[in-house]
Write a structure and sequence with these properties.
It is a single chain. This protein has one domain: Methylamine Dehydrogenase, Chain H, CATH 2.130.10. By secondary structure, it is an all-beta fold. The chain starts with 5 loop residues before the first strand and ends with a strand.
Amino acid sequence: MASVLQHVGDQRSIVGHGDTKKKEIYKYVAPWTVYGMNWSVRHDKRFRLAVGSFIEDYKNKVQIVQLDEDRGEFVLKSTFDHPYPTTKIMWIPDQVGGLPDLMATSGDYLRLWKVSDNDVRQECMLNNNKNSEFCAPLTSFDWNETDPNILGASSIDTTCTIWGLETGKVIGRVSGYVKTQLIAHDKEVHDIAFTRAGGGRDLFASVGSDGSVRMFDLRNLEHSTILYEDPKQLPLLRLSWNKQDPNYLATFSMDNTEVIVLDVRVPSMPVARLCNHRAAVNGITWAPHSSCHICTAGDDHQALIWDIQPMPQPIEVPILAYAAEGEINQVQWSSSQPDWISICYKDHLEILRV
């Protein structure tokens, strides 16, 4: 299958084939700048995504869009209000559809939404501050793939909160409770992610403004492991675990063009540096089906796919590159359809066949 991405060094255009049913790229233009975005993971909801607005007031939106594969274009399924911009959107990690069709968003709070064909209803709004109706803004969160009743959220107040979900007596209603809350960093926490290592339920890592990557175990929260510290103590903005080999994770620092890959067995020393971006990196996502491939995206309008198999030899250049028409602020690799990557820039959502 041809890819929409160019092989690096190959100037020939390989975008599309003319047949709308076989296109290698599909676009959706939202009515506002897009930031939050993610794929549904359910096999019976192919090419369903959620996108969130970035509007600097209290009137943000989230839209659910679905690709009509016969017409070759996205169809807007529903729109709902979301006061502040979504810092992250995720669908419940349930590929077979045996659980309620839920979506979570972070911003001022962690919210869970129940999605039906033409309607979205807020199930619950989770506040980790017992003493106030307000909580510190959430920078990100992650939904535990091994146990979908666990979510972890990161906040600017230096904490990570691990939430448990439960279904109430009213069938289908979902509520949440704080399983644990911990001070994770010395400054703001920017991202949190569970790893599949050790059974995949209890281990997670976080990154923050103190420039460190820290790993935690829910079974023993008195101790954490510092996996890496930025030499200049620059804030680390995102982290992403390798989906197939949990020994590896990737992160990047603020306003930096470099993505570093870490091996948890050899803390503190990056095992690879991915350096081909010409402006700040904004997003990273590992292939769901391969331990050797990762996609990075940034302000240089580029989405780059790398093969890290040569590690610990230097990774000089990416294997594939895509040039967008704007600064890419979000990138996600579809877990249920690993031939497809999604990116966001300006008011555009694009999905690319790789």
